[in-house]
Structure formats: structure tokens, C-alpha cells
Amino acid sequence: MNLFKHNPILNEIKESFRLDLSALQDIAEDFYEELILAVNGQPSSLQALPSYLPTASGKEQGNFITIDFGGTNIRVSSVTLQGNGSWSVRAEVRKPLRDPNREYDLTTTETSGTEVFDFVADLIAQVYNSFPSSQIGMTFSYPMVQHSKNEARLLRWTKELQPHDTIGERIDLMLTESIRRRGLAKLSLAAIINDTTACALAASYQHPAVKIGSICGTGHNSCCLYPYFPEKPPVIINLESGNFNRLPLNGFDKRLHQHTLDPDQQHLEKMVAGKYLGEMWRLILWELIQKDQLPEPSHPLLQQPFAVSSEPLSYLYADPWGNSARQWYQQAGIDHYQPYQLLILQDISAAVIHRAIGLIAASYAGILKSNSSSDEPAVIAVDGSVFRFLPGFKQGVEQQLANLHPDHPPRLLLTPEGSSIGAAVAAALPSV
Ligand code: GLC
Q: What is the span of the domain harbouring residue 149?
């Protein structure tokens, strides 16, 4: 018997996460309106940050050192573009900005920009010593304003990073100074791009029809090709769509904002991105425990904000009786839950995940309204851990997009390695 089917408390919570097709259509329309405001320089929760780059042709060539500065992991690679839509990666080093054993942590306010970029320059040196190259392409997954493809000023940090004295500063100069200090005088920064732009470039390098790129990972954001400068070819613009805010927030969303460093910002991102999905689920679980709908855990872990990542959420959404989920119940002190209580856990994970799927699809539908010029179904390049590893996520977004765009259902193209390949393509492309 499904004891939880008629639980009014649970049903009310689930209802507060439900978005039907007409709600998603309204959100898509609002997203489109905010996008048009942003490109016209009007106040908007979206931005239109030009990358000064078109999409790729597939003919780009050369050897590059690429940096993927996306979140707490820095990855430096040596990438060769062969020019026919193919590439090879010859070396790769990666190191987290925060040591898992807490021996160092470069993500806090105590860290300076110099320390962060000196750390990056050390990794560059390791790759450069084996595979010298003269040009760097850097994917830097934060909002920045640019006036050419290789110069960028940081607007703000997102995803809980907070080195001091960096906001408003030139990222390209900080990196270049660190490279010089490291004695790598022959290297120069050829391009600096957002990870959504990197995703769009890597995909268009293989499929030149791609005009939209998106990341569904720790953070969430999208970019699209747009005729931004009159008299010039279209360029990719970063929308910083994680900050889209014409969205209905429920009580859990409001509580989640209070646990973040930037409350009341990044509304869409905090409803859909890997950094927050597990926390949203934990907040609901905790409410059910406090309202005596679920037993107390035997361990305090679940009381801590951000104790649940999107990984266990994936396990229990896919199979609440599977081995991975069971192991996690032990760590979280909920291995004494009855089978019907595990079904409740799965049910609330579905509520959180289905809302995220709908919102992402609605944002893509809003972009497509501004962007699609032909009758061909659009292809959206996507990467990120949520997109790759959350079971049924890609299919769910495609299904919702088909509901929102029944005439020409868009296709989603998984674009792994986008941050490295896209950074190399950006370095090879001429600035618009
Ligand atoms: C955050 C950043 C954005 C980035 C996204 C995905 O939303 O602000 O620039 O593209 O995360 O990494």
C-alpha cells in the first residue's frame, strides 16, 4: 500500500514545486522578454555579455594550452585542433582550489586574486614544460564584461567562490602577471570565455549549425548567437541566465537563499543547478521530519546546510533500493527508514528534479524565440554533471521542449570536453 499517496503535508509540498505546461509557457515568455531587455541595455535579471566571438566553422587549427576555471577544480590541458572538426588532448593536469583534506583553501575571502592565479600558473607550467605552445585559451565560468575576446573584467563571483579584491578587476591581466612571474614569457592569453560559450564553440566546431550553448552542472547558465553589434556578424552572448528571476519562489526556495552567500540572486540557478538540488531536497526532508512525517535520522549530517550533494539525489531518484542509495542512507543516518518512507524520499527528489527540468526547458524555449531563424529543429549544446549524470534529465528536458515547441522539437547535444575544446577554438578564432 502506498501510505504516502494521501499525505496532505507531502502533497502540499509537492504541489508547491509543480509547474504545468501553461506555467512553463509563461516562464518562457518572461525569459524572452528579459532577454530582449538585456540586449537593449534595459534593466533585466538577464545579461547580454558579448564574447566578441562568432560560432566555429570546424576549420580552426593550432596547438593551445587551455584552462578550465569552472568552479573549485582547475584543469589545464594541451589541445591540438586539427581543423576538420577533430582535436586531440595531449596532456592534462587538474587540481582543486580547495584541498579535500583542508590543507589549503583558495575559495574563501582570505584568498587574493594573485594567489588564485599563481596557483593556475603553476599548473600551466606543468603542461607547458611537456608541450610548449604560444597561446592560451581560458574558460572562466563567471560573469565578466569584455571589450575583446582576450580581455575581461570580473563582474561578480557566483557558486560560492569569494577571493578578495577581484571584483571589477581584469582577469586577463591577473592571469598574465602570474604567468610572467612563473617565467613563462612566451605564452600569451588569446581568448577568455564563459563555459557556456566554450560549450557552444566546441559543439559548433563539429556541427556548425549549433547556435546555443548551456551548462547544467554545479551552476547553470546559457549563451546564444545574437546579432548584437549592428553591421557586424552575430556574436555569442552570455546571458548569465542563472540569475533569471521572474519565477515563483516557494518557502523552500526562500529558505535556501538564506543559506547562500548571495541571497536573492541567481534565482533560476538555485532552482536547477547541482550545487543546490541536494540542498533543496534536504530542506524538504527536514521539514517532513519536523512535522513528524518521517523519523529522526540517527546522525546529525542531514541537519547541516549543503550536506547533500546532487550525487545521492541521483541514486535515490533512480532507485531508492539500489546499493549506492543504501550506502548513502547509512552515512546520512536514515538506514532505519521503512520502504514506504524511502518512497517518500524518492518522491520529493522527483518533485525537485522535475521542476528543474521544466525550468531549464522553459529558459531554452525563451532563447529559441529570440534566436530561431529557420524551420530546422534547433540544436542546443549542453554539458555539465547534472545533464550527464542525473538519470532521465536529458530526456526530460527534451520532452518538455517538445511540449513547448511541438512543431520543431529542438534536440540537445551532449558536448563533453567543451571547456577545453571550446577554449582552444576561441583562441584560434579571430575576434569580431
Ligand atoms: C554560474 C556562473 C556562469 C556559469 C555557470 C555555469 O552561473 O555565473 O557564468 O556559466 O555558473 O558554470
A: 61-193
Going by C-alpha positions, the residue among 360, 429, 364, 44 that lies closest to residue 204 is: 429
| Mean pLDDT of all residues belonging to the chain | 95
Longest dimension (CA), the chain: 70
Q: Name the residue type at position 42.
A: Q
For residues 373-388, one letter each, b for 16 or more C-beta atoms within 10 angstroms of the residue's C-beta and e for the rest, the string is eeeebbbbbbbbbbbe
Render pLDDT for 373-399 as a digit per residue (tens, 0 to 9).
666 789 999 999 999 999 999 999 999
User: Per-residue pLDDT for 364 more than 60?
Assistant: yes
- The alpha carbon of 239 and the centre of ligand 1 are apart by a number of angstroms equal to 10
Query: At 129, which amino acid appears?
Result: N
Q: Model pTM greater than 0.85? A: yes
Residue 175 lies in a domain: yes
Does the CB atom of residue 219 touch ligand 1 within 6 A?
yes
How far is the C-alpha of 272 from the C-alpha of 362, rounded, in Å? 12
How far is it, in rounded angstroms, from Cα 43 to Cα 37? 7
d(CA 134, CA 429): 15
Residue carrying C-alpha cell 578550465: 68
Whether residue 1 has pLDDT greater than 60: no
- Cα atoms in the 13 Å half-sphere on the side-chain side of 315: 14
Using CA positions, which residue lies closest to atom 9 of ligand 1? 142
Does 88 lie in the same domain as 40?
A: no
Looking at residue 282, its pLDDT comes to: 97
The three three-digit cell numbers of residue 32, written as one number: 524572452
**Closest to 251 in 3D by CA, of 4, 9, 71:** 9
Claim to verify: residue 86 and residue 21 sit in the same structural domain? no
SS3 413: strand
pLDDT number for residue 178: 98
Name the DSSP class of 112. Answer: B
Regarding the beta carbon of 320 and ligand 1, being less than 6 Å apart is answered no
Residues 36 and 118 in one domain: no
Query: Does 161 fall in a domain?
Result: yes
The grid cell for 370 is 529570440
Q: Taking each helix axis from N to C terminus, what angle separates 310-318 and 323-332, rounded to the nearest 10 degrees?
A: 130
Ligand 1 pocket mutation, candidates 215, 223, 360, criterion most atoms within 8 A of CB: 215
Q: What is the pLDDT of residues 136-147, one digit of tens each?
A: 999 999 999 999
